[in-house]
Structures are given as C-alpha cells and as structure tokens.
Give the backbone structure.
Amino acid sequence: MELFTPEIGLIFWMFVSFAVVFFLLAKFGFPIILKMVEKRSDFIDNSIKSAKEANERLAGIKEEAEKLLSDARVEQLRILNEAGQIRNKMVEDAKTQAKNEAVLLIEKATADIVKAKEDALAEIRGEVAVLSIEIAEKVLRQELENKTQQTDIINRLLDEMYV
Amino acid sequence: MKYFKHIILIFFVLFSATVFAENDTVQTAENQEFNIKEMIFEHIGDAYEWHLLGHTAIPLPIIVRSSNTGWHVFSAARLEHGETYNGFVFSVSENHKGKVVEINAQGEEIRPLDLSLTKNVISIFMTCAILLTIFLTMAYKYKKEPIRSRRGFLGTIEMLTMSIYEDVIKPCVGHDYKRFAPYLLTVFFFIFTSNLMGLIPFFPFGANVTGNIAVTFVLAMFTFVITNVFGNKHYWKEVFNPDVPIFLKAIPIMPLVEFLGLFTKPLALMIRLFANMMSGHMVVLVFVGLIFIFNIMMGAVTASLVSVVSVAFSIFMIALDVLISFIQAYVFTILSSIFIGMARAEHH
C-alpha cells in the first residue's frame, strides 16, 4: 500500500514549490492579468459606447442640418415674401405720395392761379377804379361848373351812400 | 489531415515491429516472467532516477537526514545495483521497497528523513517553472500593453484563465471572489499543467505527479486551511451549532457530523484527483502490459495482433485522459471554490 502513504519528502517539496508559485503568482501574476483584462474590457465597452454616441450624434447632426436647411428655406421664402410686400408697399407708398404731391401741387397751382387771377382782377379793378375816378373827375369837373349842380350831386351821392 | 489515416497506420506497423523486437529478448529467456503489477507500480510510483530508454536512466540527487550521521546529499547512481553508500541502501524489504534506508548496527532498516529530489519533485519544479514563466511573462506583457487583443498562446491562456475566473470562481465563491481568485487559478493551472505533462510519455515528462497522494494531499491541505482560516462566524455556527432539532444536538450527533465534514471535504478532493489521475495512467499501462502478457502466454503472433488493439485502446485512453486532465483540474477548482464560498457565505 505504498501508493496510499504520502511521502514526507514529496509533501515537503510540493508544499514549498506550490507555496512559492502561489505567492509569486498571487503577487505578480494573476491580479495584474485580471486587472488588465478588466481594463481592456472596460476600454472596449467604452469605445463601443462612444462610437454609438458618436453615431447618434452624427445622425443628430444630419437631422439638425436638414432642419437648418429647411428652416433656411422657409426663412428665405419668408424674407422673399416680406421683401415683395415691402416693395409693393413702397411702390404703393410712392404712388400715394406722388399722388398727394401732385394733388398738393395742383392745389397750390390752382391757388396760385386763383390768387394771380384775383391779383390781376384786383389790379384791374384798381386800374378800372382809378380810370373811372379819373373819368369821373373829368366828367365831374365839366359838370361841376356850377355850385348848385355840385351840391345836388353831393347830396345825391350822399343819399346813395346812406341808402 | 488528409494523411492522418496513413500516419496512424504507419504508427501501428512501427509499434508492432518494436513489439516483435522486444519479443525476441523475452522469448530467449523462457523462464523470465513478466510481472505486470511491478511494471505498473514502477511507472506510476516515484523514483530516484529518471528512466530514459532501455537501461539508461538519469540518477537524481538523494537528500537524506540520518538521525545518527546528519545530512547526506549524493547521487542515486551510488546506490545502483544494491550498492551501499555511507550506510544507505535501496531497500528490498516489503516495508520500504525501493526507498532509501539506512542499515543500523543491528542490521535493521531505518527510514531516514528523505527529502530527495525524486522524479516527481523534479516534475513539480518543472511545472512550477512553466507556470511562473507563462504567467509572469503574461503579467509583464499585459501590464506593458493592456489595451491590445491577445492571440495565439497568450490568448488561449487568457481564455482559460477568464473562463475559470468568470464561470467558476465568480459564481462559486460569491461576493469577495477577487480575494481568492489567485489561489484558485494557481491550483487550476498547477493541476492542469501537471496532468498534461504526466500524459506525455517520454523524458522529461510522464511523471505521475497528480496521481501521487502526497501531491494531492498538499493541494487539499491548502484548500482546507484557506477554507477554515477564512471561514466566517456563520460557517462556524453551522458546524458547532447547526440549525437542527434540539435532540440532535443534545447528544452532539449533528455537530460531530458537521465537524467530520470539515475533514471529509478536503479528503474527497485529495482522493478524487489522486484516484482519477492514477487510474488514467494505470489503464494505459495495463493496455500496454497486455501485449507482453499475451506474448508470454500465447506467443508473438497473438501478441502482435493484441498490440494493435492495445495501442488503439491506449490512444483512446490517452485522448480520454486529456479530457480528464482538464476535468479533474476543473473539478478541484470548482469544489475548492464552493468550499471557500460556503465558508464565506452570509445568512441565507
């Protein structure tokens, strides 16, 4: 039964060598390997995560760009519309203004004409009055040779004035 | 792989030829008996020399301490052929057969403290050297360049390491598995490497290390000590004050059973690994030995026919042993993990 009785020498050497190997591997071997494998796994996980995020962001950016583009298009349309409106308005305004101006000018011209006419009339009237007075003077000078006639005329004139 | 069949066939033929060659020498000495038991025990046992081929063997250093004359270190070659050196001799008696003994003044055999570097010891050293080389290099490389995919040999080792770590240690040990991982991984790779080295049938491999009870005893002791040193309060309560009806504790049947359980667990570990690995070697040796038995009993022709069958079975057995090598290392690790995990478990 030699097979089932452990030899002291083998136990001793086995214990020593296994203890040494265990110590060395537990200190410089397995913990480092396990840590590094974990580190690598983390790195891979993180890489995949960030790649996914980047992809998502890229998709987001594309969407955003499209949105921006469409927004720009809408904006462009709006601006064009607005510009058209403004132009129309400006033309309209210009037209009304021109019209108003024209009306004013015409009114002014009319007023001027009227005034000129009135002035002319007044002048003519003055002339006519002066002329008539002169004529009247001349007539009167002839007629007022006598005192009676003078008084008559004066009276008549006075009557005329008061009545 | 196309020529695989041919290679196998050639192998068979060559092997049969060598059997014929050996037959001649056996047959010329008609009364020479082939002792299969001796042959097998010689192969699975330990030795002071490392057999190479035929009659050549490398003598290994013998280190003994006699209670009278103190330490002696000498080569095993000095004791060959029954020679005596400083009072030491290879025993031929039934008690210490093949071991170094000291003959005292009364002519009795006394076994000295024997720390010889036997075949198994050298094999253990080699396993240790291989493990240290692989894992220290691996750790160095991984530390230098952690972010890199590993292929080839290191990748395989990493895969093995991580599968043991993730699938055995993590679920079996429980919450503080990281603390026990180095021990369990060392145990796994030590057993696995030793097992595989034991399967390679030529020098410098082929020593039956894990099929030796001293080796499995030390491994089981490590697990036993770690389990009990790191056992928590709950674990010891379960041993000495288990949750069973009071009449089972009044006469301490259950505590006794539980206490015995502390020792049966590592004992089972020890016996399982030892028996499996030893029997693996034994079966292969029996198949090979069968050839020589048939040779003596029925002559060379039958023996050569038997050799074909025997070699086929041997190959099958060695292939099976490769599987067993892994399984036994795996089982030892998984059971150690479970024992440690049970000793560390909180209330369930």
Summary: Chain B has two domains: 61-116, 119-344. The first strand of chain B starts at residue 49 and ends at 53. Chain B touches chain A through 49 residues (CB under 8 Å).
